[in-house]
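User: Hi! I'm working on a homework problem where we have to compare a predicted structure to a textbook description. Could you give me the structure for the chain below?
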Amino acid sequence: MTPNPAKETERERWALELAKLAGRLNPTAVRRWADALEECAGPGQVEHALLDAHPVAGMGHHAADLARLWHRRPHLSGEALGLALLGAAAAAERADQCRSSVVATGPSGGSALHKSAARTTGAALEEVIRSARERLLVVSYAHHPSTRMVEELTAAAERGVVVDVLLEEKTGALKAFKTPFTHMADQVRLWRWPEARRGANGKASMHAKLVAADTAKALVGSANLTGHALHHNIEVGVLVRDPSQVKRLVSHFRALMGPDGPLERA
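Assistant: Happy to help. Predicted structure tokens:
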């Protein structure tokens, strides 16, 4: 049979529109609508059935979009369309799990004009630390130990996570970090960049800010590990959920910590 390019293009366009719709719906709505579609004989009254199944304000235009899609392919059964919607929603959720998102901090107070939908740096940092299962990499230029940060890292170490911490020695961060974790030296490992191994005649700085959980999730940004940076300063960052990109970040620092790298245990 000779392929029909026009038909294939229409089918792909239809599938793309369904995927976009599925990505706009929350999981509860998708499940309820898939169940409702299974009971529908055709697209004629489907909008009412969908809205009855998930009676939430603002869903009308989504129901209308799904009805229009079904009208364009009326040979599909309600069950088939429901399964297609569930599959598209699952694919959208997987893609979202790998999508990076912006995080930001400060200034505290201020008008609503200064507020955004971005997640706060502190909340994103806690998410990364709590998601670690085996390894946690912490890199910061400055560090002033806060009770919250010490608690989060201690909890990670106590559940068996090996925590590698690289800090800038000349800011006093390394010394400040040692005290709370003296009793956990095997689980919380400190690293330094000796002046003799630095460029610019020893004046180069360890200025990176990164927290990475295993090779699954990482927070990269401007914020140091200080209470002001995490909650009060104006800071921005990116929460990276793409494992391939996180692995590249982590591998870079693992190489620096390796036998031929410039870093050494503190």
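For your comparison, note the following. The radius of gyration is 25 Å. Residues 5-24 form the longest helix (20 residues). Good luck with the assignment!
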